[in-house]
Amino acid sequence: MAALVRISSVCNRGVSPLLFRSSFLIRPLALQKKDRDCPYLISANIHATPSNYAGSGSKAASLHWTGERILSVALLGLAPIAYCYPGPAVDYSLAAALTLHGHWGLGQVVTDYVHGDFKIKMANAGLFLLSTVTFAGLCYFNYHDVGICKAVALLWSK
Amino acid sequence: MALLLRTVARQGLCSSRSQFGVLYRHAVPMGTTAKEEMNKFWAKNTRLKRPLSPHISIYQWSVPMAMSISHRGTGIGLSSGISAFALAALVLPESYPYYLDLIHSMTFGPHFLAFSKFALAFPVVYHTFNGIRHLAWDLGKGFKIPQVYRSGYTVLALTVLTSIGLAAM
User: How does it sit in the membrane (chain B) (predicted)?
Assistant: First the structure.
């Protein structure tokens, strides 16, 4: 009983809405005066994941996020390795890591600034094309030319 | 506080729609997704040709804000540079050392070279150090406002020093 009273007093100060602020998209409606036992509760429209989704939801977005972070750490580690042990293995690893990190990064930029289903599709297609050409070009450079590590070394030597 | 409310809800003192696991009684799920709502917003406002309220043109810039967009800007710039380099590798007929010698024959002086190295290194170094700052945030560390500013200034100082060091190599 004491707990109920305590909650009522807290809710009357309008604390409840704050608790859900970060979780749901809330459009608070008028206070339901007729609730005798829960006078403080506000009806709200929410975007809730339906219970039939629970457990069968895709973890793709979450895994993508984690993959992005792992790749960033890997790229961070590649830099000193490239300095100390330049060579074809590092060259191709660098080509792959740089291209993918850039591809995913630009993908986030597209997600942030491009709106509308068709435009999003077009922007992502263009990005995919750019990343493919970039990777192809870097691999070509690694194979037929001096390679990324040597290129940086030569650039800095003068 | 939330813990208290959760406990109470579980004890059924407030009859909630438990299938949604929410704490208040009249939780009504909306028929549309958040994405649909956002699209509706943009569609309606562009159709009515409403002007956009000034936002970034009037909001006072802060160091964290500027560093955040700079992180994005350097990322885009570096990515474009890499793509341009890859494209050039595919398209240009001669080899890399040839073009490098070509550029060196046009050099304007030793200071120009040092400055170019600094200008090249700066975005890479900034993006790298600020990237580490981002990774720390991803681990949940350093979100207090004083910490944000401190880590920000540290990144800026390290960037300048490291870029100078690299340009001197």
Answer: Multi-pass membrane protein
Residue B80 CB neighbour total at 10 angstroms: 14
Residue A47 annotated as lining a ligand binding site: no
Instruction: Take residue A14 and report the two structure tokens written for it.
Output: 């309008």
* A38: contact with B, CB 8 A cutoff: yes
Check: pTM over 0.95? Answer yes or no: no
Could you read off the pLDDT of B110-127 as tens digits, one per residue?
A: 788 889 999 999 999 999
A116 neighbors A62 (Cβ within 8 angstroms)? no
Count of beta carbons in the 10 Å neighbourhood of residue B29: 16
SS (H, E, C) B11-31: CCCCCCCHHHCCCCCCEEECC
Instruction: List the pLDDT tens digit at each of the 158 positions of chain A.
Output: 544 444 444 444 444 444 444 444 445 444 444 545 555 666 666 666 555 555 557 899 999 999 999 999 999 999 999 999 999 999 999 999 999 999 999 999 999 998 888 999 999 999 999 999 999 999 999 999 999 999 999 999 87
Q: Binding site annotation covers A113? A: yes
Half-sphere exposure of A75 (CA within 13 A, CB side): 22
The answer to whether residue A8 neighbours chain B at the CB level (below 8 Å) is: no
> Which residues is A21 bridged to in the sheet?
none
**Interface list for A 63-82 with B (CB within 8 A):** 69, 72-73, 76, 79
- Beta-carbon separation of B97 and A76 below 8 A: no
- Chain B residues whose CB is inside 8 A of the A4 CB are 8, 13
